[in-house]
Design goal:
single chain; alpha/beta; Rossmann fold; Dihydrodipicolinate Reductase, domain 2; 2 domains; 6-stranded parallel beta sheet; 10 helices; 30% helix; 24% strand; binds nicotinamide-adenine-dinucleotide
Length: 419
């Protein structure tokens, strides 16, 4: 076990350097590269994130990605990336089957960790990761999960408004995450459709996001669920080579069994008595990346739609009925979360900015030694909800409690990053 890696001192920006090493270089690799590259140029950060090295298994492809996205070095073995002296923080952008192994090795090597969602493929892996993160926290290392939808300014504003008691006692959370890239039965059997690589299907991919977002906005965990899951197309063409993303550029070779869910539908309870409905599917024809969430409280409601991500809808039920109603808040004002550093009011942001905000928040957390949210304990809690959904779906939708996450390190409170 090595000591926590100390940021290198005094780079050209006069700030301590935070060397980032990223594993995986496709979709999330590109999105995280954008985040790391941009965060320090937009926000005044206490450390200077440096794109030290990126890792993938194909030497030529990873070198090309490094050149395109501005990574100084390329590695083909993630263990070598972790061992590099110029890497202080390991950013995991690989499929779920490798999250636990890479994160545990990085924490053991004294590095900070950012891990894409879902935290792991099983509750057992997530428990090991949360325990390792809690132990590492005692040594000054931090670990965060990449639930980036918390970092849309409008969702962060919704959280702020719930915390300010703008909607009163919460009654309902209604959330859907709809995509349609599997509607074609000839769409290839990529890693996302194989349980041993992805853990689960729409549930772990899209469901993990909406469980985290619902809990974040509600400010409390889901304590039980009742669920249905379905796999509509059970056999698909196998990609000829290693698959990445959603497509099959190398053609196909025979057919294989789909071993994950195509869709998951579940209801849930919060401890406060509020109830929630969740829907995650890759079969919602015409819906590309449609994440919608609505919260109804005793004194108001909030609604967000990722396809209109610069807007938040708010109904204040304390206003006279004669002119009350949902109003559109254009979330582009400098006192809205994250927007103090961006463009003048009305000049909107997009999907990629969530990764810039993620990098910004993690850099602040590392500099201040504050535990970032969502922590690995938060990731474990989501994993337990996903497991309860699978258990319920396998038992005719019987209501299944979610085991609470024990406070693994009571000495270190999790303090939300101020935005
Ligand atoms: N936050 C989000 O909005 C979001 C969106 C998509 C995916 N994700 C998550 O990000 C992770 C990656 O998904 P993606 O869409 O980028 O997948 P992808 O298929 O586009 O890329 C996966 C990358 O991992 C690499 N890889 C796989 N195994 C590896 C290994 N052992 N060593 C080194 N590299 C390896 C592949 O070569 C590829 O570069 C998953 O956990 C996924 O759930 C998050």
């Amino acid at each position: 076990m090595t000591q926590p890696h100390q940021p290198h001192q005094g780079d050209e920006a006069g700030k301590p350097r935070l060397g980032v090493g990223m594993v995986g270089y496709a979709f999330m690799g590109a999105a995280h590269s954008q985040g790391w590259r941009t965060a320090g140029r937009v926000f005044d950060l206490p450390l200077n994130p440096v794109l030290a090295a990126v890792c993938g298994r194909d030497a030529g492809a990873v070198r090309a990605m490094a050149d395109r996205h501005g990574w100084a070095a390329a590695e083909t073995d993630w263990r070598a990336l972790i061992a590099r002296d110029d890497v202080d923080l390991v950013d995991i952008c690989t499929p779920g089957d490798s999250h636990a192994e890479i994160a545990l090795a990085a924490l053991a090597a004294g590095k900070h960790v950012l891990c894409e969602k879902p935290l792991a493929n099983t509750v057992e892996e997530a428990e090991a990761m949360a325990a390792a993160a809690a132990a590492a926290r005692e040594r000054g290392q931090l670990a965060m999960v990449g639930f980036n939808y918390r970092r849309v300014p409008a969702t962060a504003l919704a959280r702020r408004m719930v915390a300010e008691d703008r909607i009163g006692a919460l009654r309902h959370v209604r959330v859907t995450y709809l995509q349609d890239w599997l509607v074609d039965p000839e769409a290839p059997l990529t890693w996302r459709l194989r349980k041993e690589l992805a853990g689960s299907g729409a549930l772990g991919d899209l469901g993990a996001h909406i469980v985290d977002l619902a809990q974040y906005l509600a400010g409390e965990p889901v304590v039980g669920v009742s669920a249905l899951t379905e796999t509509f197309v059970r056999e698909r063409p196998l990609p000829a080579g290693a698959s990445s993303g959603l497509t099959n550029p190398g053609g196909s070779e025979g057919r294989g069994a789909v071993t994950v869910d195509d869709a998951a539908l579940f209801t849930g309870r919060f401890a406060s008595g509020a109830i929630a409905s969740f829907e995650a599917t890759r079969f919602a024809t015409g819906r590309k990346n449609s994440l919608r969430i609505e919260l109804n409280g005793e004194r108001g409601s909030l609604a967000f739609d990722l396809e209109r991500l610069n807007e938040l809808s708010y109904h204040d039920a304390t206003e006279p009925d004669a002119h009350a109603g949902f109003r559109r808040i254009l979330v582009t004002e400098p006192d809205h979360p994250y927007l103090e550093a961006w463009w003048p009011p009305g000049h909107g942001l997009g999907y990629e900015h969530t990764f810039v905000h993620q990098a910004r928040d993690l850099v602040h957390a590392v500099a201040s030694g504050t535990v970032p949210e969502p922590s690995f304990a938060d990731g474990l809690q989501v994993q337990r909800v996903l497991a309860a959904v699978e258990e319920s779906a396998g038992r005719n939708s019987v209501y299944t409690p979610v085991a609470p996450v024990d406070p693994l390190a009571p000495a270190a409170p999790t303090t939300p990053i101020t935005v």
